[in-house]
Amino acid sequence: MARVLRVARSSSLFSFGSRSYSAEASHVDVTKERNVQWVFLGCPGVGKGTYASRLSSLLGVPHIATGDLVRDALASSGPLSQQLSEIVNQGKLVSDEIIVNLLSNRLEAGEAKGESGFILDGFPRTMRQAEILGDVTNIDLVVNLKLPEEVLVDKCLGRRTCNQCGKGFNIAHINLKGENGKPGISMDPLLPPPQCMSKLITRADDTEEVVKARLRIYNETSQPLEEYYRSKGKLMEFDLPGGIPESWPRLLEALRLDDYEEKQSAAA
Ligand code: AMP
Predict the structure, then answer these.
(1) Where is the signal peptide (predicted)?
(2) Which residues lie closer than 8 Å to 69 by C-beta, 6 or more apart?
(3) Is the pTM higher than 0.85?
């Protein structure tokens, strides 16, 4: 079933045309007619991209990261690129209007290719963005990924991408001791294969100063979204227990997706 989410370009106001849905689910019902519409919340470096992208492959819905849309716009040679680079390189948020336009264009292009459903990563990030999204469609579930703040800076600084295959890696060794009743956390680095080793790049906004600014902005501007979605009964909190090998099966369990593939073939 197609999902429609459009922005009227002639207007400076956001006016998405849309169809709304009534589904509310904390898990995937494979008999349901439309694909999932999920949002991933969480601080920079928590792993939204990693888990959203794995779930998107599992569920066959696009993983749409507004940070990627911003980086694509930055890499283009248009006037938007210059406007964005100063904002992004200081760790600040791009205006709601620009980000909603980038997202609308991405959704329209996907829809033209027959995409339906989505896992949004990095959107919404402000209350205004959440309201705009809520005005046009019904989000089924918001997954709030959590890690102790102490490890987030190291995780961002350890992030690397292969500029050829596009895969993400992390060279950080995380080993936080548990204290005051809080569990410790350890994560092995996710090292690239030899063919990617010489092609690794670091994001321009993954410097210590900018990561700290991004974390501060998250706490001030984006954290209120947790309460917004909690009050709507849509928030699923997920404390990551460690790296991907420990976290991925636990996340699937929490989403009641651990036997998803079996259920799907049974329903086919
Ligand atoms: P990310 O890859 O999600 O960390 O995003 C990288 C940068 O893109 C952010 O620091 C912002 O400057 C910008 N950005 C991404 N998503 C949004 C959003 N929803 N609202 C405003 N700015 C955004």
Answers:
(1) none
(2) 99, 102, 103, 106
(3) yes
